[in-house]
Amino acid sequence: MASIRRKLLVALLGALAAVGVAAAAATWLAVHREAERLFDYQLEQMALSLRDQTLQGPAALLPQLGYDFIVQVWDPAGSVAYLSDRSVLLPEAGSGFETVAVSGRDWRVFTLVREDKTVQVAAPESLRQDRSAAMALRILVPFLVALPLFAVLIWVLVGRELQPLGAIAADLRRRDPSSLAPLPARLLPAEVAPMVSALNGLLERLRTAIETQKQFTADASHELRTPLAALQLQIELVERARSEEERREALDTLRAGARRATRLAEQLLTLARMEPEAAQAPTAVALERLAAAVGAELEPLAERKRIALRFAGLDPATVRGSEAALQTLARNLVDNAIRYTPPGGEVTLRTGTREGTPFLEVQDSGPGIPPAERERVFDRFYRLAGAGEEGSGLGLAIAKRIADAHRASIVLDEGANGTGLRVVVKFMAGGEPPSPGSSGGATEIH
Question: Mean of the per-residue pLDDT values for the chain?
Answer without folding.
Answer: 77
